[in-house]
Amino acid sequence: MANQKFKAIVIGGGPVGMYLAHALQQTGIDYVLYEKRDTIPPPTAFGIFLWPHGLRLLHQIGLIDQTEAISSLLTKISHVGPTGDVVREYSDFSLLELGHGYPVRMFDRASLAQMLYDNLRDPTTHIRTGKQLVDIQRRAGGVTAHFADGTREDGSIVIGADGIWSTARELMRRDSPEGLFDANPYLAGYRAVFGRAPLPTPRQDASSPVLEPEVQFEFHRDGALLQLFTSKREVHFIIYMRKKTEPRSEQENKAGKGGGFDPNIDDTDAAIAPWLDTRLVEGLTFGDLWQTRAAAGGADLDEGSVGLWSWGRTVLVGDAAHKVLPNQGMGANGGFESAAALVNQLTALLRHEPHPHAAELRQAFAAYQAERQGPMAAFQRMARDELDGWTRDGGPPLDALRAAVALIGPMVARAARLDAVPFPDERMGFAPWVYKVPAEAARAAGGGPKL
User: Measured between alpha carbons, how far is 102 from 107 in angstroms, rounded to an integer?
Assistant: First the structure.
């Protein structure tokens, strides 16, 4: 058993789990991914946003052309007052591309998932769907994952990429000393209604404008915010509502109606009623958009970070370890980056020890968390501060909020990438990437080993 080839068992086939599969594939680490749903492309009601550092990671694994083909740019932000008039507009998204070489792009989650799946080598061998994790057992030199249908998988480690309701995390807590893991790692101070609808098109008998594509719109109210993101084909929307009670814990959410959906907003008609008459542009209200919705839902918005991201041979990535509010769109980007940082630690370890012991894995997992916990805590705080400002009674302090997001650029520039994957065509802007592939950095300095 101890001499079997190192293999990672990945739990969760969301965007982070699928990127992780590519990162493992690119670095030559064997893996198998288990997803509890019957299909990888999920039927979801909201889009996903990739910032320059997220797109850079997809470019490094050879997917930039496919990525651009299935996404839309975000070019500017438009803040709209109660009468539908634009009160502030700026093109910070375009500045990000000038700074880092990559723009901000919006995706339909199903299209992104399908692209990631289709571009794996031999996905039917490595991806298993309809498999609900129920147990992780340690054995000599590895672990065995057990699934509800009786399936079992032997491997070297388990990587939990299974989101905020992570079963892998719950099994870690079960097997660890009492008090080491908080049963309620996340809190929810906001709730939301979200969905998508077709992008309105002009009527033949009307000259009034419709929603401009590839723009982020912000509609502000005391204690609430309506965000619209327009692609070339769709409008994705999310209504944030500041909760009037104390934030609920993850366990309280999970025990509520709908497996995490807030029973107070399951009646979405009541939740969106105050917004129906909101004028988006001349001749178009949110109510008009709502009537054409393709999908919609409601949920509490969890946020926070788990105190310890690993136990034994199990380690967490993405929302299973760190959850940020969605208003800045940093969740998937942070998950991709954490996945890359974890794979970097594994490749460095396996280069020197093909069959690492548990103690060596603990060191690698600890180094991964030490690298990523600080940046994710910062992104979490920035998203919360921004949403608090956007929903402030009396209106948002737009100048202050815009100044605060100046922190994002330097953090993006310091993003991780895969150390063992050459990246000669990496795009650059006026704010160069801080971290280079070690071999490339050594060659730039005039010497050093080649990977």
Answer: 15
CA 399/CA 397 separation, integer angstroms: 6
Going 3 to 315 to 366 to 445, the CA torsion angle's sign is positive
Q: Are 227 and 327 in contact, with CB atoms under 8 Å apart?
A: yes
Contact (Cβ atoms closer than 8 angstroms) between residue 309 and residue 365: yes
Let me know if 402 is exposed, middle or buried by CB neighbors in 10 A (0-12, 13-18, 19+).
middle
What is the distance between the alpha carbons of residues 269 and 125, in angstroms, rounded to a whole number? 44
Class of the CATH-defined domain 7-68+108-184+305-444 = alpha beta
Domain regions of the chain by residue span: 7-68+108-184+305-444, 187-303
Model's pTM, two decimal places?
0.91
Q: Is the dihedral of CA 360, 7, 338, 36 positive or negative?
A: negative
10-residue averages of pLDDT along the chain (451 residues):
82 96 97 95 78 97 96 90 78 87 92 94 95 96 97 98 95 92 87 91 62 91 91 92 64 43 56 90 90 88 94 97 94 96 98 95 98 95 93 86 84 95 93 74 39 32
